[in-house]
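chain below, 237 aa
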Amino acid sequence: MRFIITLLLFCLPASALAGQRAVYRGGDGKGMTIEVADDGSAVVRNQDMPDNYGILKDGQFYLVSREKGEWNVARAEDLAAAFDQVLPPLFKNLFGAASAKRPNSRGFRVEAKGKRKILGHEGQVYAVYGFDESKPKESKEVVVSKDPELQPVGKAMQEFMVSTTMMLAPFLGKAAAEIGGDIRTMFTYGTPLSIEGSLQLASFEKADIPASATALPAKPKTAAELLKEIRENSAKM
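prediction:
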């Protein structure tokens, strides 16, 4: 009986796989892998940093890292709340329903420039201004797709980019929150297929993503614990 069940599993068509795996490549040969399980949870990894990644689970995004063999997990919203205690309030509207298309002081704007297919996905090409506020007249080309099949990948990618940008708050200050807002605005146009000078979708496939892939490796730290760590690290700088 065990042999028959195994044989049937190997004979299942690829369409029976409910998960997704998207691989993005960067110009430097590095890139990002996003795996989405059938329950909607996801894991996002920079391929050159295996011990630092993000997990989207039950509508919450977590940043995961390992230092000296010990795993650390922080919910992005708790980390934002902790930063707001030691910096001028920056991230109050960066998470949740408050994040929507909106203008900001950095000159961020988007102009449609036609259409292009990438890996069979129809994409809208945009010239995006404001990535570098010191060069307001320069734009980057971004190709995004409204394909519903790509939306779970886009959601995970968005939260990872916003959360990792937030980690730069001690160095960027207010700009970190503004860049996070720009990222959210860009994702309202669709899931990126290509970001000039950064990433391009290299593969997208159905995949069997086990629940263990999106499991938290440790208990998330509380906002109070994160605040204590931030203050201790600031004192050492």
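The chain has one domain: 15-236. The longest strand covers residues 109-118.
thats it, cya
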